[in-house]
Predict the 3D structure of the following.
Amino acid sequence: MNLNLRRRRYSKISQRSLVKHLIALRVRLSTAKLSWTQEFLGLAKGLDALQALLGRIALKKVNKGETPTEEDRAVQSEILKCLRVLMNTDVSRFG
């Protein structure tokens, strides 16, 4: 799935639903086999998608001059937790 398609899919779901998906992703990243994580980072470009999502939230707030909502903070927190899991996974050192 390419990054543009991911962006469109994320823009259509609520922030609360996105948080739930990110929690599920974090659990999956924590428990998945190394091959799944490698595919997530490589073929699926998962790191790029997480970075783009984090950037999109930041830019939305900067461009509109808004302060982050609780939902935005929850999404940002879950993205950072996913990134922490990836940083603590051996595959992240090679990918």
About this structure: The chain has five helices and no strands. Residues 1-5 have pLDDT under 50 and may be disordered. Helices lie at 3-11, 15-31, 34-41, 46-64, 70-87. The radius of gyration is 13 Å.
